Amino acid sequence: MENGSKLRRLIIIGLFIALEVILTRFCSINTPILRIGFGFLPVAMLGIMFGPLWAGIAYALGDFIGMMIFPTGAYFPGFTLTAFLTGATFGIFLHKKSITYKRAFFTALLVCCLWNLCLDSYWLYIMTGKGIMVLLPARLVKVACAIPIQTLLIPLAWNKCLKRIV
């Protein structure tokens, strides 16, 4: 890869990390056990453009930077791991593939059920000491809302906007 394309990739990743931080920290509904927002969108786009490793690293960095600059509680590295796994999942299932609603649904289902519902609930259990069964109802509602939103927005954002630019 030539230097110009490395620089271009670095600039795009930096811009998308900034966008993720803004969407997550300022354009989300936050409660102590739940966050509903659109921070997934820049990460999904990075997964499509650059693959699992870059999307995972970018989301982990975005999570860490966002937490350091705009803390919403104590930093917990488990959520950064979830962010990395989320970005990697978007990259594994969307990079160099046709971005269809079916593929977006499958990817959103994996991200929301494995990482957001299971792993994040476990991190919250560790942090709060509350039983999983206490946390699950609100988290199930979040997943039920997030899957269709991600399924709709990922192909829409890529196919109607970014695909033409990139």
Automatic annotation (TrEMBL):
GO terms, molecular function: transmembrane transporter activity
Superkingdom in the source lineage: Bacteria
UniProt keyword list: Membrane, Transmembrane, Transmembrane helix
InterPro entries: ECF_S_folate_fam (IPR030949), ECF_trnsprt_substrate-spec (IPR024529)
Sequence intervals crossing the membrane: 6-26, 38-62, 74-94, 106-126, 132-158
Gene3D superfamilies: 1.10.1760.20
Pfam families to which the protein is assigned, alphabetical: ECF_trnsprt (PF12822)
Keyword hit for Membrane: yes
Stored NCBIfam families: ECF_S_folT_fam
Name the UniProt record assigns to this protein: Folate family ECF transporter S component
